Amino acid sequence: MSDDALAPIVYIIEDDDEHRRALSELMESAGLTVESCSKPSESFELIDKDRPGCVILDIRLPEVSGLSLIDRYAPLPIVVVTGFGDVQVAVRCLKKGVAEFLEKPVHHQLMIDTVQRLTQISVEKCHADRIARQLRARVASLSQRQVQVISQALLGASNKEIGVNIGLSPRTIEKHKQAAREKLGDLTEFPLSLVLKELSLLLGEEPVASPTSMGRFTH
User: Fold this and answer.
1) Alpha-carbon span 38 to 97, nearest angstrom
2) First CA to last CA across the chain, in angstroms?
3) How far is Cα 155 from Cα 17, in angstroms, rounded to an integer?
4) Residue 37, SS3?
5) What confidence tens digit (pLDDT) does each residue in 136-180 have?
6) Are the CB atoms for 13 and 58 separated by under 8 Å?
7) Hey, what long-range contacts does 76-82 have (CB within 8 A, 24 or more apart)?
8) Rounded to an integer, what distance in angstroms lies between the CA atom of residue 101 and that of residue 38?
9) How far apart are CA 104 and CA 167, in angstroms?
10) What whole-number distance in Å separates Cα of residue 27 and Cα of residue 202?
């Protein structure tokens, strides 16, 4: 994924033309890329949920209540803005996973700080998801036996210990490790906890506590 694809977009769904324009200009003044629309139906085609970003959503829209739209915009973080301070609505929004609930008029710096914080979280999540997909594709190429072997090797078990555990000779264990190395390539770019988690999922086991290094697998 290119750097451009990781650049966040701020989506503004607001039916008030003046307020939508002012919000867009405010976000752009902070160096953020903005896409905006006045109707929820337009937003469904506008929003790209596969790239990082943030949604600024007016809770009161002409076509439908903003509350009913929250699930449609996941997993992007959502900032709900409203001119009507309703505690019950705020609670419902937060229960549905809204990141922030702000009352109009929103102080400019508060809005900028909120959106910058949420877009950064979205960028980090998108990056982590990309890394996980890359690792998952590599791990999926392993045989079940190779998964068993490297799962134990990463935890520091020797060929002899692994052989005893699964009933194979140390020499056969080494052959499985070598084949797995060739398929997986350099694993040091991935967090060890993530590697062990993906392997555990293939084995149908609970992820184990991670050691501080790649054990005997990378040697």
Assistant:
1) 23
2) 30
3) 59
4) strand
5) 999 999 999 999 999 999 888 999 999 999 999 999 999 999 999
6) yes
7) 76/11, 76/47, 76/49, 76/52, 76/122, 77/118, 77/119, 77/121, 77/122, 78/54, 79/54, 79/55, 79/111, 79/114, 79/115, 79/118, 81/14, 81/56, 81/57, 81/106, 82/58
8) 19
9) 68
10) 43
Q: How far is CA 58 from the centre of its chain?
A: 24
In the chain, the amino acid numbered 183 is K
Residue 82's CB is within 10 A of a number of other CB atoms, namely 19
37-56 per-position pLDDT tens digit: 988 888 888 999 889 999 99
Structure tokens at 102: 């702000």
Higher-scoring residue by pLDDT: 143, 211? 143
Provide DSSP, 96-135: TT-SEEEESSPPHHHHHHHHHHHHHHHHHHHHHHHHHHHH
**Residue found under tokens 């976000």:** 27
Q: Which of 85, 102, 112 is nearest to 22 (CA)?
A: 112
Phi, psi of 113 (to 5 degrees): -60, -40
